[in-house]
Specification:
About 55% of the residues lie in helices and about 10% in strands. The protein has about 1050 residues and is α/β, with parallel strands linked by helices. Strand 12 (about 585-590) and strand 13 form a beta hairpin. The relative contact order is 0.03. InterPro entries: P-loop_NTPase.
């Protein structure tokens, strides 16, 4: 027969190669999963399996099966399909460039779109109907490794586009990739944001695990060996080895399975076959290493081992093969079992020193014991009888008993009675037995059992199966050990506690009374007599004492730690055995009643009974993707899509989901709302949303409504509702709470006002619902409580705003009513928003509108308070309600006209100060323009020129003209004035007019501008009056005047005030 074995398969090179493939159940299951998911619309698959599990061979066998070349599998994708395959092998390069080359894309413009277009063209070219294009990417991880280090955004975006393109169920383009590890593992070196993108891409693929279990490797080996090797021993010898192996309990395999393959595996004995497959999984590459062994031609392999000295290919032969073929790894520190292999080598060297004859038999025994200690299961029975028989039957050692006894006498091996096995022993000067006896005299008797048990025992949480099956809510109980029955409050993923109580001073009635008072899901287990447990704890304490005293003796320490581990395991066994044995020494109590526990089944039933009793309000919700403590990233995406449908399509049947499709968000809607008769659809805002009275969600619905009711009296954080649901009698899982709370609030959104850290939220958006689920402590609600006088007040507001009055109000009514006030305030000029030239009532109303966060508080507390009223006063005197409305109208009018009043005051100032009488806009504008008509404007300073230009502006809009004047004087328009700016306006305006009047007089003088300069001078004093003077001088004297000025300047001192006073007094004398 031709040898078609190769250590690796290349899916492109070996396309037409004849190769032997043995389809395993696991591989067949993977094909079935791909086919079934294909029919559901999934088209992108990622096959994950460790090195050497046969992923490449699987892809090749899959291709040949689909094409009908060899039917390794039965992949029934479509009836009479037209098939095409495109195969790519990953390499450390850009996946985009690889696809460009594969599909011969020439242009660099719109690179990725062109690649996808070429893939579709390839698909289209297959035929018209029933066509499938398979894209196979082997070693996909190499592309990902490159992507993680080179432009990850671009590379990853292409992978995402490719997966999404293939996942279009309208076309049959199937993408299958293979990797050695999960996709996230390739993203460790990236930033957090990039890692999140990586996770998002993973969600586009259906991940399929491809790891062959040990049974599959044994099955493959048996099929191969049966075909290639002859059986040259009797069936009885094979059955004898099989019986010997099964009795050891070294491996947890089905006996029928082992019986079926035992004969086929010869010359391998069943024990060596088991350990061989385990070693190849741990040290090698699974199937690849297995077939390398089966095809091995060296002297340690199956074909050429020494059959005369070895009736079977036994554990000693396995050791030789591993040592020959994996030597460099076994002696390296990367070997997880380095110490054990080192111990075997040391023991072999000790054998060679200790014995002169039959050395080969001794070495076989050492190798056998060494490998069994590494790979056999804990609890295996590897005693003297086993080794005598195995060494004789499988290894061909007739004096096996003598061999074992001599090895034990030389302290090369030692029998551990507690673990029922021989071990390799490297020797120590410490007499362990005597040291333990001596330690017993040094330590005191064990009194605090609970503390020591907590130190040595850890129970895994227990799952309440029946309850979880019936309700859909997973319930977990954890064990707590104490010396008194304690109070516990289950939180998070833990739903209950099994309290193991160890205290000889307590009586059963003490435990029973405590249980009667307990309201939480706490089961008390009272150990009446714990003598055996006490003795075991004492033994463990002795061992640890000896370890502490002999830390430098590594061999003794290792042996003592092994003994200690065995004692701890025994302690666990005693505790567990006592709990579930139904013995009289252990009493169970819940709710003040004794419970009978005969076995683990009874115990698990009790857990479910406790859950049903304590968590009696928990609804039935059978959605395992949501009903859990932590939901997956894919369900986070589904949650977002569900909220989006709820907010945008609440008025559509089934939230607008297609009838023929069932994405996760739709199944959540069906199980959470539709199955409970809850419909978000309403004809109008006053319609009530209700729930079926027989729904398991009824108690949850009522509790949520009660929360809204309690929020009528004070603003409550949404986290308070979440906390309520986290505790009995609900104890909902966080996953369900994150869906239920936002959903319920959205359904009841018109019954309350919602706030985000004091900011009012008028309408709930998708983002709001997501944030409420994530940060409920940041959001609070206040339920509307409008009746009696509040209803009258509210309707008075609506009458004032010309909005129809109503008998029932909701959030929309509040928004409709508060909105005109907020819009009115926002449209006010800045002056009106900040001036204090208003009545106290108007200022308070303005402040109430500006700071409004809670519409209810604004309408029913702040507005009445601003007008000097209270709810009680309005309730006791109905006439005050009419006055309240009138006063509110007046204050609003005062706010609205505040800016107009400012403009009017400016006009009045101009008329009274500079016109002399009240005048119209046109009249006082003309008066000012005429006043300065003869002013020589080209000689003015820039600010004076701007002022005069604004005066002369042709603007005929009164406010615009006055604003331009005010801005020229103060740099601000009237709309943004403060009260201080108004005073400043009058002062600066008056000063400007006086300056221009003075300049007008100068302008009236008959001067020669080309040859003369003119200066107007005016000095005011309390004690003397000096008339304004005009000083004229020819420009030809400018140099002389400048020289005189400099001389005077040089005479001045350092005090600037004194200088000014001196110059002014001199000027005054000169002008008189």
């Amino acid at each position: 027969m031709a040898n078609n074995f190769t250590t690796s398969v290349n899916i492109i090179r070996d396309t037409d190669r004849d190769f032997n493939y043995i389809p395993t159940p696991n591989a067949s299951q993977v094909v079935s999963q791909i086919v079934n998911d294909f029919k559901k619309g999934i088209r992108s698959f990622n096959v994950v399996g460790t090195y050497g599990t046969g992923k490449s061979s699987f892809l090749l066998a899959f291709e040949q099966s689909v094409k009908g070349i060899k039917r390794y599998f039965e992949p029934n994708f479509l009836a009479n399909p037209k098939i095409d395959f495109v195969k790519i092998i990953g390499s450390y390069t850009s996946i985009v460039e690889q696809f460009e080359a594969t599909f011969e894309v020439q242009t660099n413009k719109n690179q990725q779109e062109n690649i996808l277009s070429e893939i579709f063209n390839r698909y289209h070219s297959i035929g018209k109907e029933n066509k499938i294009l398979f894209l196979l990417i082997d070693e996909f991880g190499k592309f990902l490794e490159y992507a993680s280090k080179h432009n990850p955004e671009k590379e990853l975006y292409f992978v995402q586009q490719l997966a999404e393109f293939c996942n279009n169920p309208k076309h049959n383009i199937v993408l299958i990739t293979t990797v050695h590890q999960s996709l996230e593992s390739y993203a460790y070196s990236l930033s957090k944001t990039q890692q999140q993108e990586w996770t998002k891409v993973k969600g586009r693929f259906r991940e399929i695990t491809f790891n062959e279990p040990v049974e599959q490797l044994l099955y493959l080996a048996s099929e191969y060996v049966a075909e290639h090797f002859e059986r040259k021993t009797s069936k009885s010898e094979i059955e004898k080895c099989l019986k010997l192996t099964t009795e050891t309990k070294a491996f947890n395999f089905n006996k029928d399975f082992l019986t079926e393959i035992a004969t086929k595996l010869y010359p391998l004995d069943i024990l060596s076959a088991n350990i061989l497959t385990l070693t190849l999984q741990r040290y090698g590459q699974n199937e690849r290493s297995l077939f390398s062994f089966l095809e091995s031609s060296d002297h340690t392999g199956l074909a050429k081992f020494n059959k005369k000295e070895n009736p079977f290919y036994n554990l000693s032969n396995v050791y030789d093969y591993l040592n020959f073929n994996f030597y460099s790894f076994l002696i390296s520190r990367y070997n997880p079992d380095y110490s054990a292999w080192s111990s075997i080598r040391s023991s072999i060297e000790e054998v060679e020193r200790a014995f002169d004859s039959d050395i080969n038999g001794y070495i076989k025994a050492v190798k056998t014991i060494g490998l069994l200690n590494i790979f056999s299961a804990s609890g295996s029975v590897l005693d003297l009888n086993f080794f005598i028989e195995y060494l004789k039957s499988a290894c061909g050692i007739s004096n096996s008993k003598e061999i074992i006894e001599n090895l034990e006498a030389k302290n090369i091996i030692r029998y551990r009675s507690h673990s029922k096995r021989f071990i390799l022993f490297e020797g120590t000067d410490l007499d362990i037995h005597s040291a333990l006896m001596e330690a017993g005299n040094k330590i005191s008797e064990v009194e605090d059992i609970a503390s020591l048990l907590n130190k040595h025992i850890q129970f895994p949480p227990v799952f309440a199966k029946q309850y979880s099956f019936l309700k859909g809510t997973p319930r977990y109980f954890e064990f707590k050990i104490s010396d008194y029955p304690n109070n516990y409050y289950p939180t998070g993923e833990i739903d209950g506690v099994v309290n193991l109580v160890f205290n000889s001073k307590l009586k059963e009635i003490d435990i029973q009374n405590k249980s009667k008072l307990q309201e939480e899901a706490i089961i008390y287990c009272f150990f009446k007599n714990s003598a055996e447990i006490k003795n075991l704890l004492f033994e463990i304490e002795k061992i640890q004492k000896v370890i502490l005293e002999n830390q430098k003796d590594k061999v003794a320490t290792r042996e003592l730690e092994s003994i200690n581990s065995a004692q701890v395991r025994l302690l666990n066994y005693y505790i567990t055995d006592s709990i579930y044995s139904g013995g009289k020494e252990v009493k169970w109590y819940f709710n003040g009643e004794e419970k009978q526990i005969e076995n683990k089944k009874d115990f698990n039933k009790l857990l479910s009974q406790v859950c049903s009793f304590v968590y009696n309000a928990t609804p039935v919700f059978k959605n395992e993707l949501v009903n859990k403590h932590k939901i997956s990233s894919s369900i986070h995406t589904a949650k977002k899509n569900y909220f989006k449908a709820l907010v945008n399509d609440w008025d559509k049947e089934n939230l607008g989901f297609e009838d023929s499709k069932f994405p996760p968000e739709k199944t959540i809607f069906l199980s959470l709302l539709k199955e409970n008769g809850i419909s978000p659809i309403r004809e109008n805002a006053t319609d009530l949303i209700s729930i079926n009275n027989d729904s398991s969600f009824f108690k949850l619905w009522r509790a949520s409504e009660d929360f809204l009711e309690s929020a009528k009296f004070e603003q409550l954080k949404i986290s308070e509702l979440s906390e309520l649901l986290k505790n009995r009698p609900f104890k909902l899982k966080q996953g369900l709470i994150d869906f239920w709370v936002p959903t319920f609030l959205f359904l009841k959104r018109d019954d309350f006002a919602i706030f985000n850290e004091d900011s009012y939220i008028p309408n709930l958006s998708v983002e709001n619902l997501e944030l409420i689920a994530k940060y409920p402590e940041k959001y609070s609600i206040k339920t509307f409580n409008i009746e009696g006088v509040k209803l009258d007040i509210f309707n008075s507001y609506r009458t004032f705003l010309n909005i129809a009055t109503e008998q029932k109000f909701d959030n929309n009514s509040f928004i409709e009513t508060i909105k005109p006030f907020i819009v009115f305030y926002k449209q006010l000029p800045l002056y009106s928003k900040q001036t204090k030239r208003l009545s106290p009532a108007a200022i308070k109303i303005r402040k109430a509108i500006a700071n409004s966060k809670d519409p209810e508080e604004t309408f029913f507390e702040e507005f009445p308070s601003a007008l000097g009223l209270t709810l009680n006063s309005l309730q006791n005197d109905h006439s005050k309600l009419q006055n309240f409305t009138s006063n509110l109208q007046e204050t609003v009018k005062e706010l609205r006209t505040a800016y107009e009043e400012l403009v009017k005051r400016f006009e009045d100032f101009i008329c009274s100060e500079f016109v002399g009488q009240l005048s119209s806009f046109e009249d006082y504008k003309k008066h000012l323009q005429k006043r300065f008509s003869k002013l020589k404007k080209h000689l003015l300073l820039s600010n004076q020129k701007t002022f005069v230009q604004r005066l002369d502006s042709p603007l005929d809009d009164r406010k615009a003209w006055l604003n331009s004047i005010a801005q020229a004087v103060t740099g601000k328009t009237l709309e943004v004035f403060s009260d201080e700016d108004e005073i400043l306006l009058y002062e600066k305006f008056k000063a400007m007019i006086i300056e221009l009047d003075s300049l007008t007089k100068i302008s009236n003088s008959d001067i020669d501008e080309a040859n003369e300069e003119i200066i107007g001078v005016k000095i005011d004093s309390f004690f003397s009056k000096i008339a304004p003077k005009v000083v004229r001088f020819p420009k030809s004297k400018s140099n002389e005047i400048e020289q005189l000025k400099n001389e005077l300047k040089n005479k001045l001192g350092k005090d600037n005030t004194s200088n000014i006073a001196a110059v002014l007094n001199l000027l005054k004398e000169l002008l008189q």
